[in-house]
Write a structure and sequence with these properties.
This is Sulfur carrier protein ThiS. 6% of the residues are buried. The termini are far apart. The protein has one helix and five strands; from the N terminus they run ββαβββ. The chain has one helix at 19-25; strands at residues 2-5, 8-11, 34-38, 41-43, 58-63. It is mainly β. The chain has a single domain (2-63), classed as Roll (Ubiquitin-like (UB roll)). The radius of gyration is 14 Å and the shape is globular. Strands 2-1-5-3-4 form a five-stranded mixed beta sheet, with no helix packed on it.
Length: 72
């Protein structure tokens, strides 16, 4: 299956591939801190193991950071 992950085309040879499985395959650090965008839509974390990926899907792993001190 050909996927675009964070802007790079990749071939993943796996049978059934869910978002949750992909996170493990890609060895994503701190998966609880990652939001996943699938074909332009943010998906709910509770659905990661339910949503099966399809050929040509576009996936973005998004990390949101907080903190800092603006203006000082």
């Amino acid at each position: 299956m050909e996927l675009t992950i964070n802007g790079k085309k990749e071939i993943i040879d796996k049978g059934k591939l869910t978002v949750g499985i992909l996170l493990k395959l890609k060895d994503i650090q701190m998966p609880e801190m990652v939001s996943v965008e699938l074909n332009g839509e943010i998906i709910d974390r509770k659905d990661y193991d339910k949503i099966e990926l399809q050929n040509s899907d576009i996936i973005e792993f998004l990390y949101f950071m907080g903190g800092g001190n603006y203006g000082n």
